[in-house]
Q: What sequence folds into this?
């Protein structure tokens, strides 16, 4: 081990600062494109766009549409965050009361659980610091989602305007904007967590176990906000999408982003609040939880006992190196090998994943070799301590990193219309919507196989080498290239919005073709969801291990009735949760469809384009429905661990967490990939890029209508239920870990004699 304490104290905040500065630089470069101002040529006359439209009118229309999308997004998030502020206040009280009650609300220091000869902070102090960490995690997650939305709404019209100059210029703006979100989120999350640890350490001193247990509240706060962001944003975006598609495309036979469609603004707002803000909060939650899980497990290792500060901060060093690696990777796409034509877009995005993974592998080796002791031990509850070498940790982190890459490419294979699976789904549309649904469901089920094997191999290898600490750092490995993954993920909705603005602003067919080309590799969101679900599986298992350790459970025996009851109920929870979110989207979409039909029916001149639709009415329907409908699924996830742990005890809760993890991962992958495949089957037919695709089209054909129905059914699967499930399994695990002291001391009321 070579690295010292000073290196950690400098390297971690410096990496975060570099990430923030890089994000601000990218934002500055994006701001060079002006919206709402016309260009003037050298001779003093107003420029005319390449399609003959006056430049001033195009700019004005883009500015107007951008303002409407931004206003709708901000209104939704502001209202949702008001609800979340109330929730945070109430749940903070619950955390404090439950944890403080473990020690009888005492202010006196108490013997440490791990060493009775030492004294640890009072129950009141531990409860206070856990509550503060929860609030900080929730605020950082909220900020992550809000910044993502602001960046996306700032960049969408700018991407549209740059598309007039060429696809390369438009790609650069969209990708730089995605990078702003990726680096701000990764750097802010790391910096706030590191500073929180340093401040808490002033009180906890050398009590690393108590310190890192308090820090787990940070992960709980991040995931709590992510849950409501994903569910609320998902309901919003899919209600608008379904309404716009069913009435606009199928019934009225008008293009997707036609300005005559009353739901078109709500649809574009949904991309920002669901796919951007919700996704940002989700992946921040994964980062916070995986880091917290690794920190908690490391605190009961030999370098925790030895007070080895550098080794204890190993998870933070991995994330810090990830920011620098992602920075170099981003420069490859924006400056070194920038996109010049349409055919270069997809290879450039794939190259980002490969380059970041290869570079990160080298960084992981260096940090493992120089940042960890040559040999150390990991304590395993109920078993002998595990002797681990530093190169073992390299393979643990690396297994998670490469498993993430495999999941990304498998997800792309099953959701991209460049490959056989989606083309088969598109071909099934010849015989109607029913066969399309059957083929899509089969594809989703099949797409689970390889990702689960990849996760299983990573788990087995990591656990064999370093027990639960290995699994925790494997999850960190999968998320180590978070900034690049987020940049790619955010790029998709920004480009999608840009296409919608081009359509609504009446730009030429050539410009719309360029914006369509940006979204043609429409697997960016699917790959992001694949990473999120894969990392959720590893994170949840690591948190599960930390919970079992903290609750003092020697082993989880599924043959015992307490554990088995929890297991089977836990496996049911993802279905219950999915039913609630799917029905919520259905109810909201029903109201949206009726409103869009009403406007087409009652507003004179709407179809002729002489009258504007009432966009705000549709925005209000989506906002009201999503805020109302996000509460029951959120309550299910947040209350279940509290009820089970309090009434049935730590063993039953352990079974519940295991069942939810095993079941939830399968459903999440299947739902996300099924929906993604149906979406791209529809786009395959619409693009008509091959002879096979042309034989199924054009737009408005029976095969295309069947594809639109499949896409509509898949919308809530891929953008609401599927992505939210990974938060369900993570959130229940981290909540159980935070409340483990209470459950261990006071849980199992119904089983007491």
A:
């Amino acid at each position: 081990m070579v690295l010292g304490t000073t290196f950690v104290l400098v390297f971690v905040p410096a990496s975060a600062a570099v990430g923030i500065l890089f994000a601000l630089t990218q934002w500055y470069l994006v701001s060079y494109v002006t919206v709402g101002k016309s260009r003037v040529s050298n001779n003093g006359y107003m420029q005319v766009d390449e399609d003959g439209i006056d430049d001033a009118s195009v700019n004005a229309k883009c500015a107007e549409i951008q303002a409407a999308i931004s206003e709708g997004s901000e209104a939704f998030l502001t209202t949702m965050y008001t609800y979340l502020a109330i929730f945070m206040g109430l749940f903070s009280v619950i955390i404090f009361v439950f944890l403080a009650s473990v020690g009888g609300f005492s202010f006196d220091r108490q013997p440490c659980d791990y060493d009775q000869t030492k004294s640890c902070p009072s129950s009141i102090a531990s409860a206070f610091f856990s509550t503060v960490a929860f609030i900080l995690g929730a605020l950082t997650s909220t900020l992550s989602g809000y910044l993502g939305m602001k960046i996306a709404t700032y960049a969408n019209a700018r991407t549209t305007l740059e598309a007039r100059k060429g696809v390369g210029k438009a790609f650069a703006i969209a990708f730089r904007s995605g990078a702003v979100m990726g680096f701000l989120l990764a750097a802010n999350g790391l910096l706030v967590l590191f500073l929180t640890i340093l401040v808490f350490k002033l009180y906890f001193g050398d009590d690393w176990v108590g310190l890192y247990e308090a820090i787990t509240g940070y992960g709980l706060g991040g995931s709590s906000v992510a849950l409501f962001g994903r569910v609320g944003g998902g309901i919003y975006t899919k209600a608008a999408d379904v309404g716009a598609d069913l009435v606009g495309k199928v019934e009225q036979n008008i293009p997707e982003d036609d300005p005559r469609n009353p739901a078109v603004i709500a649809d574009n707002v949904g991309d920002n609040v669901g796919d951007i803000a919700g996704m940002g909060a989700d992946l921040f939650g994964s980062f916070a939880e995986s880091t917290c899980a690794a920190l908690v497990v490391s605190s009961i290792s030999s370098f925790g006992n030895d007070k080895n500060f550098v080794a204890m901060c190993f998870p933070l060093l991995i994330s810090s190196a990830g920011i620098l690696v992602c920075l170099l990777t981003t420069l490859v796409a924006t400056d070194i090998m920038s996109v010049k034509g349409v055919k270069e877009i997809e290879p450039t995005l794939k190259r980002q994943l490969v380059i970041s993974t290869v570079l990160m592998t080298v960084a992981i080796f260096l940090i493992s070799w120089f940042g960890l002791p040559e040999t150390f031990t990991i304590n395993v509850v109920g078993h002998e301590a595990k002797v681990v070498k530093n190169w073992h940790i390299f393979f643990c982190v690396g297994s998670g990193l490469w498993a993430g890459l495999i999941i990304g490419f498998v997800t792309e294979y099953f959701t991209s219309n460049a490959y056989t699976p989606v083309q088969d789904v598109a071909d099934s549309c010849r015989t109607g919507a029913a066969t399309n649904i059957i083929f899509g469901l089969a594809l989703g089920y099949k797409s689970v196989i390889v990702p689960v094997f990849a996760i299983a191999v990573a788990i087995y290898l990591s656990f064999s080498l370093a027990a639960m600490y290995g699994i925790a750092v494997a999850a960190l490995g999968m998320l180590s290239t978070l900034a690049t993954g987020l940049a790619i993920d955010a790029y998709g909705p920004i480009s999608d919005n840009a296409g919608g603005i081009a359509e609504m602003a009446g730009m030429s067919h050539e410009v719309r073709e360029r914006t369509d080309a940006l979204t043609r590799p429409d697997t960016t969101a699917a790959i992001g969801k694949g990473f999120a679900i894969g990392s959720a599986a590893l994170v949840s298992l690591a948190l599960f291990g930390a919970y079992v350790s903290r609750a003092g459970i020697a082993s989880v025996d599924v043959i015992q009735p307490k554990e088995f009851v929890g297991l089977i109920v836990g496996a049911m929870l993802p279905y219950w949760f999915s039913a609630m979110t799917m029905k919520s989207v259905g109810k909201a979409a029903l109201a949206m469809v009726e409103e869009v039909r009403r406007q087409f029916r009652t507003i004179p001149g709407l179809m002729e384009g002489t009258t504007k639709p009432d966009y705000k009415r549709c925005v209000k329907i989506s906002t009201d429905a999503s805020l109302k409908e996000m509460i029951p699924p959120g309550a299910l996830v947040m209350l279940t661990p509290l009820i089970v742990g309090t009434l049935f005890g730590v063993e039953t809760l352990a079974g519940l967490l295991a069942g939810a993890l095993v079941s939830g991962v399968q459903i999440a992958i299947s739902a996300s990939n099924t929906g993604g495949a149906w979406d791209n089957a529809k786009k395959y037919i619409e693009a008509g890029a091959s002879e096979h695709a042309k034989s199924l089209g054009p737009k408005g054909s029976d095969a295309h209508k069947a594809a639109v129905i499949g896409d509509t059914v898949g919308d809530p699967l891929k953008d609401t239920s599927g992505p939210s499930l990974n938060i369900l399994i993570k959130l229940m695990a981290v909540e159980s870990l935070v409340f483990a002291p209470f459950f261990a001391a006071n849980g199992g009321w119904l089983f007491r004699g």
User: Anything to note?
Assistant: Residues 55-101 form the longest helix (47 residues).
